Sequence to fold (180 residues):
Amino acid sequence: MKKRLLAALCLSLSQGTYAAVQNLSEVAFTIKSDWRGSDKVTALGLEAFGNFPMSKFGYSFNSSLGYADVTTKTADKENYLTWDTGIKVGYFQNFFVYGEVGLDLFELLLHDLRNDDNRRNDDRYNDEPRNDLDAYVGVGAGMQFERIRVELYSRVRQIDGEHWESKERVFSGMQVSFMF
Fold:
């Protein structure tokens, strides 16, 4: 139900999104990695940048396909594909700072590709299904050098499956973008 409400909200905002897309000025190919201890999320993607009229403040839409390798609260390892999609809003010049929010579209559209239902009989797992939408909120800063951008960020991530939850929530990361 929550996922359907989120999808309806996104569709209702489509006219505002269309106007924002009309102001996009640059597109970049991105390589990024989030980590915390041995846990990591690594991805390749695209990011499109725009500016608010007559302002040095701007926004970006990003989408990336990646691979996550995380440790659960019961010390098991979980590996899965991600389709992180998000938006950044901030001050974007040669030096930039921003805030961001995003979610895993694979989980939104396909529920859960990890198929961990086979764990129902394991005493270490709660028998009540729980699988919140994987999402993140974060802040970052970086520098742009000609057609290359380098940024560092921190994110609080919600990562879980039907019968497990990620041990770590706070991840740090680096992204390198090639503008075209």
Q: What stands out?
A: Residues 38 and 126 are 25 Å apart (CA to CA). The chain has one domain: 2-179. The chain has a mean pLDDT of 83.
